[in-house]
Design goal:
heterodimer; A: 333 residues; mainly alpha; ABC transporter involved in vitamin B12 uptake, BtuC; 77% helix; B: 351 residues; two-stranded antiparallel sheet; globular; ABC_transptr_permease_BtuC (chain B); ABC_BtuC-like (chain B); Iron ABC transporter permease (chain B)
Chain lengths: 333, 351
C-alpha cells in the first residue's frame, strides 16, 4: 500500500480520475485518421458534417465511452469476485462467465437469428448469470466448501466446455464465424453508442451497488466466520454480490465481447496502491480499469496499422504475466 | 497374493506387478474397442455390414466398399483411436503426478500451446491460393514445439524451490488463456478461410485424416506409450506424495519434469492430428481408476483403451448423427466430459 492517509487516497483517486478523462480524450483524438483536440472540440460545438467530425462523433466517441465503461465494470467485478471467493485469481474470464455469455450470444445468433440490441443484451446477461451461478454452485459443493483451487478449476473446466460448444456451433455454420469471431475475441471497435446505452442502466446500477456494498465487503473479507460473528447477513450479501457481478460482467460482455485479464490485473494493482479498504478500492479499481482498457484500445489501433488487433488479445498479453506473478505468490500451500 | 504376478528386467531397473484381475478387464476392453472399431468402419453415409468390413480388411469386398472403408473411414478411425489413447495416457500421468483428479492436459495449457502453434503454422505458411507454402508434414512438428514450449514454460514458471502441483495447475490455466488469445489473434490476422479451418481444428476433429497422418501419429504415440509404461512405477511413487516419494529414494523433481515431458509428447502427437479434443485426458483416467484401481501399470493401458474408445465414439456420433453436417468430435467429448467433471467435484463431498 502506497497511499496510506485518507487525504493521499483522495488525491490518488483524483489523479486517477484526471488520467481517466485524459485517456478518454486521447481515445477520441488518436487513430488512423489523426485529429487534433481542437477538431474534437469543434465536432461537438460546431458540427459541420466533415469527415473528421463524423468520425469523431460516430466512431471515436462511442468507442472511448464503451472502453471506459467496460474497463471500469470489469475491474470492479474482479475486486468483488476476488473478495467473495477469497481467490486472488478470480475474474469473469477465468471463472467462465465471459465464455458463458459468449456461448449464449452465439446460440442466439445461430438459432434465433437475433439481431435486436435489447435481445442481445438480455441473452448475454442470461449466459453470464447461468455461468456464474453454475460455477459458484459447483465449486461450493463438497465437504471442504468453496476452496480457491476448486473454484479456479471449476471455472476453467466450464470455460472450456462453453468454448468448445461455441466452436462447435460456429463450425456448423461458417457464414456466421466471420462476424462473430471479432466479437468473441473481445473488442470495443465498431460498436454503436446505442449498444452502450442499452446496457448502461444495468452498469450504472452495478457501479452504484458495488460502491454501496463496499463496507460489507470489508467485513466479508475477514472470512465467513468472523463476518457472521460481526452480524453480517452472509447469505444476502453473497447473493447481492453475485447479482452485481452478473450485471457488470454480463453488461460488459454484451457490449464488448469477452475481454480478459482486466478483472485480474487491476484489482491487484489497485490494492497495491490504495490498500484493501473496499470503500476506496472499488472506485479506484474502476478508474484504473477504465484507464487500462482505454490505453490498450489506443494501442490496438497502432500495432498493425491500418488493421486492428482485438483489444481482448492485448489485455491477455498484458495480463498473463501478472496472472503468473499472482499465481506464484498468492498460493503458498 | 496369487492375484499378482511380478515381473523384473534389467537388474530390477524395470519392474511391473501384473494384476490378473485387471488383466481380464483390459482384455474385455480391448475386445470392446476392436468391436467399436469394426462397427464404426461400417457406419456412415454408406452402411456396410461388420462382417463385410472384416472381409475388406483381409483383402476382399467390392471396389466401392474398399474405397469407402480403407480410404475414407479407416484413417480417421485410427487417428481418433490413437489420439484418444495418447490424451488419456497423458491425462493419467498428469493426474498421478499432480495428485489432483481434475488435472488434465487441456487444463494445464499443453493442448492450447500445441493449438496456438498449429493455428500459427496454418496462417503464416499459407499463400493467396489457399494452399500451404510448406509441406503439411511439418505440422506435427509445429504442434510438438508449441506443446513442449508451453509445457516447459508452465513448468519453469511454477518452479519456486521445486514445483508444487497447485502452482502448476494455476499457471497452466493462465498460460492456456494466453494461448487462446494467441489463437484468436492469429486467426484474425490470417486469411479468413484459414480461420474456419483453424476453428474446426481447435475444437478437435479428425475429419481430414489421411493415411500419411496415420503413419506419422502411430509410431510416435506407440513409442511414448511404451516409455510411459516403463515409467509407470515412478508415477505410482509420485502419487504417494512428495515426502514419501523422496523418502523411498525417488528423485521427485527430476521425475516430475520427465513425466511432464512424456505426457507433453503424447499430447503433442494427438493434438497435431486430431486438434484440441477436450476432456478426454480428464475423463478416461477416472473411469479407468474406477475399473482397475490406481496402480499405473494397469491404469495406463486401461485408460488408453477407454480414451481411444471415447474419441472413436465421439467421431462416429459426429459424422452420423447430424449427417450430412459434420460435428467436430471435440464437441461430443466436451458434452460428456463437462458433466463428468461436475460429478467429480460433487463426489469429493462423500470423502
Amino acid at each position: 500500500m502506497i497511499l496510506i492517509k485518507n487525504s493521499t487516497k483522495l488525491f490518488g483517486i483524483i489523479v486517477a480520475l484526471l488520467l481517466f478523462l485524459v485517456c478518454i480524450g486521447m481515445s477520441i483524438v488518436f487513430g488512423y485518421t489523426n485529429t487534433s483536440i481542437h477538431t474534437a472540440y469543434e465536432a461537438f460545438t460546431q458540427f459541420n458534417n466533415s469527415n473528421e467530425h463524423l468520425i469523431i462523433q460516430n466512431v471515436r466517441l462511442p468507442r472511448a465511452l464503451i472502453a471506459a465503461a467496460v474497463g471500469a465494470s470489469l475491474a470492479m467485478t474482479g475486486v468483488l469476485m476476488q473478495t467473495l471467493t477469497k481467490n486472488p485469481l478470480a475474474s469473469p474470464d477465468i471463472l467462465g462467465i465471459n465464455a458463458g455469455a459468449g456461448l449464449a450470444v452465439v446460440l442466439a445468433v445461430t438459432f434465433m437469428h437475433t439481431a435486436s440490441l435489447q435481445a442481445f443484451t438480455w441473452i448475454s446477461f442470461l449466459g453470464a448469470g447461468f455461468a456464474a451461478i453454475a460455477v459458484y454452485v459447483i465449486s461450493s459443493a463438497g465437504h471442504d466448501g468453496l476452496t480457491p483451487l476448486k473454484i479456479t478449476l471449476a471455472g476453467a473446466a466450464m470455460a472450456a466446455l462453453f468454448a468448445s460448444f461455441t466452436q462447435g456451433i460456429l463450425t456448423a455454420n461458417e457464414a456466421e464465424l466471420e462476424q462473430v469471431l471479432f466479437w468473441l475475441a473481445g473488442s470495443v471497435q465498431g460498436r454503436k453508442l446505442e449498444l452502450l446505452i442499452a446496457v448502461l442502466p444495468y452498469l450504472l446500477i452495478g457501479w452504484i451497488a458495488a460502491i454501496m456494498i463496499a463496507p460489507k465487503m470489508n467485513v466479508l473479507a475477514m472470512g465467513d466466520d468472523v463476518a457472521k460473528g460481526l452480524g453480517l447477513k452472509l447469505g444476502i450479501v453473497k447473493i447481492v454480490v453475485v447479482v452485481i457481478v452478473i450485471l457488470l460482467a454480463g453488461g460488459s460482455v454484451a457490449v464488448a465481447g469477452p475481454i480478459g485479464f482486466i478483472g485480474i490485473v487491476i484489482p491487484h494493482v489497485a490494492r497495491k496502491l490504495i490498500g484493501t479498504d473496499h470503500r476506496w478500492l472499488i472506485p479506484f479499481a474502476g478508474l484504473l480499469g477504465g484507464i487500462l482498457l482505454l490505453a490498450a484500445d489506443i494501442g490496438a489501433r497502432y500495432i498493425i496499422m491500418p488493421r486492428e488487433v482485438p483489444v481482448g488479445v492485448i489485455t491477455a498479453f498484458i495480463g498473463t504475466p501478472s496472472f503468473v506473478y499472482i499465481a506464484r505468490k498468492g498460493f503458498r500451500n | 497374493m496369487s492375484n499378482y504376478r511380478g515381473f523384473r528386467a534389467f537388474d530390477g531397473k524395470v519392474s511391473f506387478l501384473f494384476d490378473k484381475k485387471a488383466g481380464k478387464k483390459i482384455g474385455i476392453l480391448f475386445i470392446l474397442t476392436a468391436l467399436v472399431f469394426i462397427i464404426s468402419a461400417g457406419l456412415g453415409g454408406m452402411a456396410i455390414n461388420p462382417l463385410t468390413v472384416l472381409h475388406v480388411f483381409t483383402g476382399g469386398g467390392t471396389d466401392m466398399e474398399r474405397l469407402v472403408v480403407l480410404n475414407f473411414r479407416l484413417p480417421r478411425i485410427i487417428i481418433a483411436l490413437v489420439a484418444g489413447m495418447a490424451l488419456a495416457a497423458a491425462g493419467g500421468m498428469l493426474q498421478g503426478m499432480i495428485k489432483n483428479p481434475l488435472a488434465s492436459p487441456d487444463i494445464i495449457g499443453i493442448t492450447a500451446g500445441a493449438g496456438a502453434a498449429v493455428v500459427g503454422f496454418l496462417s503464416i505458411f499459407s499463400d493467396k491460393n489457399h494452399s500451404l507454402t510448406v509441406s503439411i508434414q511439418w505440422l506435427p512438428l509445429a504442434a510438438f514445439l508449441g506443446a513442449i514450449l508451453v509445457g516447459l514454460t508452465v513448468y519453469s514458471l511454477a518452479w519456486r524451490n521445486g514445483v508444487t502441483p497447485v502452482r502448476l495447475v494455476l499457471i497452466g490455466i493462465g498460460i492456456s488463456a494466453l494461448m487462446h488469445a494467441m489463437m484468436t489473434l492469429l486467426m484474425i490476422l490470417g486469411p479468413i478461410y484459414r480461420a474456419s479451418e483453424a476453428s474446426i481444428w481447435t475444437t478437435g476433429s479428425v475429419s481430414k485424416a489421411t493415411w500419411e497422418q496415420v503413419w506419422m501419429i502411430l509410431p510416435w504415440t506407440a513409442l511414448f506409450l511404451l516409455i510411459a509404461f516403463i515409467y509407470s512405477r515412478d508415477v505410482n511413487i509420485q502419487e504417494l506424495g512428495e515426502e514419501l516419494a523422496a523418502g523411498v529414494g525417488n528423485a521427485v523433481q527430476k521425475n516430475r519434469l520427465l513425466l511432464l515431458l512424456i505426457s507433453t509428447c503424447l499430447v503433442a502427437g494427438a493434438v497435431a492430428f486430431a486438434g484440441g479434443i477436450g476432456f478426454i485426458g480428464l475423463m478416461a483416467p477416472h473411469i479407468a481408476r474406477r475399473l482397475v484401481g490406481s496402480s499405473f501399470g494397469v491404469l495406463l493401458p486401461t485408460s488408453a483403451l477407454i480414451g481411444g474408445l471415447l474419441v472413436m465414439l465421439a467421431d462416429l456420433l459426429g459424422r452420423t448423427l447430424f449427417s450430412p453436417i459434420e460435428v467436430p468430435a471435440g464437441v461430443f467429448t466436451a458434452a460428456i466430459g463437462a458433466p463428468y467433471f461436475i460429478y467429480l467435484l460433487f463426489r469429493t463431498k462423500k470423502r
